[in-house]
Specification:
Elements: H1 3-15, E1 19-21, E2 33-35, H2 39-55, E3 61-64, H3 73-78, H4 80-83, E4 85-90, E5 97-99, H5 100-126, H6 132-138, H7 140-161, H8 165-174, E6 191-194, E7 198-201, E8 209-212, H9 218-231, E9 238-247, E10 262-272, H10 277-293, E11 302-306, E12 316-324, E13 327-338, H11 340-349, E14 355-357, E15 362-364, E16 367-374, H12 375-386, E17 387-391, E18 397-401, E19 412-416, H13 423-431, E20 440-442, H14 448-458, E21 462-466, H15 468-473, E22 475-480, E23 486-490, H16 494-501, H17 504-507
Parallel strand pairs: 3-9, 19-20, 19-21
Antiparallel strand pairs: 1-2, 4-5, 4-6, 7-8, 9-10, 10-16, 11-12, 12-13, 13-16, 14-15, 17-18, 21-22, 22-23
Helix pairs in contact: 2-12, 5-7, 5-8, 6-7, 7-8
The structure holds glycyl-adenosine-5'-phosphate (GAP).
Length: about 500
């Protein structure tokens, strides 16, 4: 997808009240965004879809809402103070700052594109006789590109694993990687940069202590693990889910709501018996992919990416990647976090937080498998994938947001054909008993065709039109957003129709 298409997505989000640059009247705050009147509805619907799937479909998962502030020792114990760093590099000419690993990853993608192009060219040339495997082993160019990718990936992983900043810089210099803005290779040395925001806690400057804004919601779950287990009499395996804000002082903050400095996470920590973590890791990989697929976006948009470089706390990890407007990128992480966090909180707090397992009369620190998805990234995945421009039979174009119906900001719009002759009053009466049960918009401005277009652009799945026949025979027109087909049903059957269309159990089967 081109930059032009991505710009269209961003401007559509603004024009239709989904996402605004934060503090826009002061020229904005980099990588901070506000959700508008329609964006907040879409966001809430995504949250509800996730929350229900976690806490209502699974008897052994409960939810919490922990504070954003936590005791500063939390971040010593979790390792974030020491290890939550990104390698940053500056270009001296453009004064632009980059993540060194991202510069290398972008370069790898460029080589991959060259390889893909070569492949396509030869596929076309040889048609049915083309054998990809043989091609990869015999074609000189393909061999060269493949080797370059393999070498780069393994040096990058080694440099990140060993935190070897000199090696990282050497990769950039040896590959002649240049700054996308100035085009020069005039780089500074690479430094580690801690991503946590700090603030002061307390009224007077003498007694105030340093505090951090949480960079992940997970730690609030670990700190409450014992409280929930005891008060809920939870038996292992069990899970704790949470949705909440997280903050990271990201080095590069581009790509709209993909990488933000203030964002929201939907995380679930699943506490399991040591030794069973790989079983549960596989279980949650499948479960989370199925959750994504339940929304009906094309399967081709998703793929797993297993991590070679594991975070300081993990013994296995993968991402669910989504085909964003700028290519496949991480949407969700699934991590087997071992007992790293609980053991450390036990050590730093000197409190006993072992689990007593009545099944075999043993005591242990549970292992944890976590699923962690960025709410804003999920929003972007849905929004960018849903926006399209269609050429209609009469030669005109319509812009339509084909959001999965269950997530649409409004479920239907009620539109009187004209304002006069009692149609508007009829429509308003029709809405009254329904508006607490469904998300309904009422619109009487402009010609009906223009109102349909506006609802298409907002992603409203159904338009219900009250016309003269409605008054006569108590039937109403339902226009489907995606097919634009119109059908008539009895007004009495409307509530049943809406219940059926938006019954979450049909989606989260
Ligand atoms: N507790 C584990 C954890 O935080 P992560 O891979 O760093 O793992 C999980 O983050 C998810 O949070 C990511 O897959 C992504 O969807 C989202 N996320 C992370 N950083 C983000 C940012 N700066 N802006 C928006 N979403 C972000």
């Amino acid at each position: 997808m081109s930059d032009v298409k991505f710009k269209k997505i961003i401007s559509h989000a603004k024009e239709y009240g989904f996402v605004f640059q934060s503090s826009e009247i002061y020229d904005g705050l980099s990588a901070v965004y506000d959700y508008g009147q329609n964006g907040v509805l879409l966001k809430n619907n995504i949250k509800e879809y996730w929350w229900k799937s976690m806490t209502q479909l699974n008897e052994n998962i409960v939810g919490i809402d922990s504070a954003i502030f936590s005791h500063p020792t939390t971040w010593k114990a979790s390792g974030h103070l020491e290890a939550f760093n990104d390698p940053l590099i500056d270009n001296k000419d453009s004064q632009k700052r980059y993540r060194a690993d991202n510069l290398i990853e972008d370069y790898i993608q460029k080589v991959q594109k060259k390889l893909d192009k070569e492949l396509e060219k030869n596929k076309k040339r040889f048609g049915e006789c083309f054998n990809q495997e043989t091609f990869m082993f015999t074609n000189e160019k393909a061999k060269k590109y493949n080797k370059e990718i393999d070498d780069l990936v393994s040096s990058l992983n080694k440099a990140l694993k060993d935190e070897n900043l000199d090696l990282l810089k050497e990769i950039i210099v040896s590959r002649n990687i240049s700054c996308p803005v100035s085009g020069t290779k005039n780089w500074t040395d690479i430094k580690q940069f801690n991503l946590m925001f700090s603030t002061k806690f307390g009224a007077s400057s003498e007694t105030a202590s340093n505090l951090y804004l949480r960079p992940e919601t997970a730690q609030g779950i670990f700190l409450n693990y014992m409280n929930v287990q005891k008060s809920g009499r939870m038996k292992i395996p069990f899970g704790i889910a949470q949705i909440g804000k997280a903050f990271r002082n990201e080095i590069i903050a581009r790509q709209f709501i993909f990488r933000m400095r203030e964002f929201e996470q939907m995380e679930m920590q699943f506490f399991v018996k040591p030794g069973t973590q790989m079983e549960w890791y596989d279980h949650w990989k499948k479960n989370r992919m199925n959750w994504h697929l339940s929304l009906g976006l094309d399967e081709k948009n998703y793929r797993f990416h297993d991590h070679d470089k594991l975070a300081h706390y993990a013994d296995a990890a993968c991402d669910i990647e989504f085909n964003f407007p700028f290519g496949f990128k991480e949407l969700e992480g699934i991590h087997s976090r071992t007992d790293f966090d609980l053991i450390n909180h036990e050590k730093f707090s000197s409190k006993h937080i072992k689990y007593y397992d009545p099944k075999d009369d043993s005591k242990y620190t549970p292992y944890v498998v976590e699923t962690s998805i960025g709410l804003d990234r999920m929003f972007l995945a849905i929004f960018s994938n849903s926006l399209s421009t269609e050429l209609l039979d009469d030669g005109s174009e319509r812009v339509v947001l084909k959001i999965p119906k269950i997530l649409a900001p409004y479920q239907c719009a009620v539109l009187p054909l004209v304002k006069k002759d009692g149609l508007a009053e009829y429509a308003e009466e029709l809405i009254k008993p329904l508006k607490l049960k469904f998300r309904i918009l009422y619109d009487e401005k402009d010609a009906i065709g223009r109102r349909y277009r506006r609802q298409d652009a907002l992603g409203t799945p159904f338009c219900l039109t009250v016309d003269y026949q409605t008054i006569d025979d108590k039937t109403i027109t339902i226009r489907d957003r995606d097919s634009m087909k119109q059908t008539r049903i009895k007004v009495d059957e409307l509530e049943k129709f809406l219940y059926k269309s938006f019954d979450i159990s049909n989606w989260l089967k």
